[in-house]
Amino acid sequence: MQHSSLARQLQVIWLLLGILWAGHTPMPAQAQQDEATATRVYDFGLHLFQLGDYYRAITEFKRFSLLFPGHERQPAAELFIGLALQEDQAYDDAFTHFQRWHLVDDPTDATRVAAFKLGELRFQQGQYRQAVGYFRGFLDTYPDGPLVSHSKYMLGLSWALDGQLSEAQQVFATLPARDPLAQQALALQDELRLAPPPQLKSPRVAGILSGMLPGAGHLYAGKPLQALTAFALNGVFLTGAVYAFHEKLEATGAILLFFETGWYLGGINSAMDAARDANRQQQKGFMDHLRATYAPPVLTFQRLQAPGLGLRLSF
After folding, report:
1. What does the pLDDT read at residue 24?
2. What's the rounded Cα separation, in Å, for the pair 240 and 202?
3. What is residue 236's predicted lDDT score, i.e. its pLDDT?
4. CB atoms within 10 A of CB 124
5. Which tops the pLDDT comparison, 18 or 281?
6. What percentage of the chain exceeds 70 in pLDDT?
7. Cα–Cα distance measured from residue 30 to residue 165, given in angstroms and rounded to the nearest whole number
8. What DSSP letter does each residue of 246-265 carry, written as one string?
9. Are 83 and 301 in contact, with CB atoms under 8 Å apart?
10. Residue 18 pLDDT greater than 70, yes or no
């Protein structure tokens, strides 16, 4: 009986060991298969990204993120999604993607890049005041390390393009003298200091001139075609009204004089708007020149791989 009981116990033990072995042996094979699939999906997304097929690359990286949320390449996949949106000029979508960044435990610098991209994207869109806020937020979160000097320069440039020159100078003063962007910041400050004052047009003067002679205000504002149009229209209606009154056509003359009054007053307002528009265009032209001359290149995938940035990124 004892022998029979011992035999049954051994059978039960062997059965349990068999079950455990059966449940354990497929795991390495499954893990290897999952890793191979993850590599294929990621590499295909990277291939599409490098080809410039950003829409399909985004699809593949989103599929990677969905299927392998805990993978070590997850930060890189999320970063590629944002970079692809930016390359495709879907700036608002890229901004939303980086704003919703959730990789708080990311051991690489992908999260740091995402925070920088918030300011860079708003800068690309010409929303300089918002860019200032995000670059400030980056510097508050990351007071040292990669992209700090780059963010300081972009903060100063954003202030300058927003017309806040004193704030820009204060930021540029914090750049170390040996920083690669320090010389560029000095050149920008020199240009701002030596640039001749803008020749702004006075909307009030434009309105007065148009009141004295229709079209004169537009000519003063640098709008010769609008000046000719205003002069011709007012002249036609005024001439018509005078002729109608001369021919005893009081009703017709009154109607023409009514429309002439509208054109006359509208011309005054239009001349003032033309002066304001001329000022805006002049300021915009100067700011566009500053941006084209002093804005550093966007941090693309290729630039993010440059060793000089000091980023810990694994693609």
Report:
1. 47
2. 32
3. 83
4. 18
5. 281
6. 90
7. 61
8. HTT-HHHHHHHHHHHHHHHH
9. yes
10. no
For residue 85, count CB atoms less than 10 angstroms from its CB and return exposed for 0-12, middle for 13-18, buried for 19 or more: buried
Q: Which two tokens stand for residue 310?
A: 């000091």
**In the structure, what pLDDT confidence band is assigned to residue 19 with cuts at 50, 70 and 90?**
very low
Distance CA 293, CA 299 (A): 17
Residue with tokens 């500053």: 290
Instruction: Choose among 124, 153, 148, 125: nearest CA to 138.
Output: 148
The encoded tokens of residue 31 equal 């893990």
Per-residue pLDDT reduced to its tens digit, 24-49: 445 465 566 678 889 999 999 999 99
Q: What is the mean pLDDT of the chain?
A: 85
Q: What pLDDT is stored for residue 8 in this prediction?
A: 57
Q: Which pLDDT score is estimated for 132?
A: 97
Q: Are 299 and 121 in contact (CB under 8 A)?
A: no
DSSP summary character for residue 202: P
- In angstroms, the CA 2 to CA 15 distance is 20
Ordered alpha helix ranges (H), the chain: 2-24, 26-51, 54-67, 74-87, 91-99, 110-124, 128-141, 148-161, 165-172, 182-194, 203-212, 216-220, 224-246, 250-294, 301-304
Residue 149 and residue 183 in contact, taking contact as beta carbons nearer than 8 Å: no
DSSP calls for 247-314:
TT-HHHHHHHHHHHHHHHHHHHHHHHHHHHHHHHHHHHHHHHHHHHHHPPPP--HHHHT-GGG-----
Whether this prediction's pTM lies above 0.90 is answered by: no
Q: Which residue has the tokens 């970063």?
A: 79
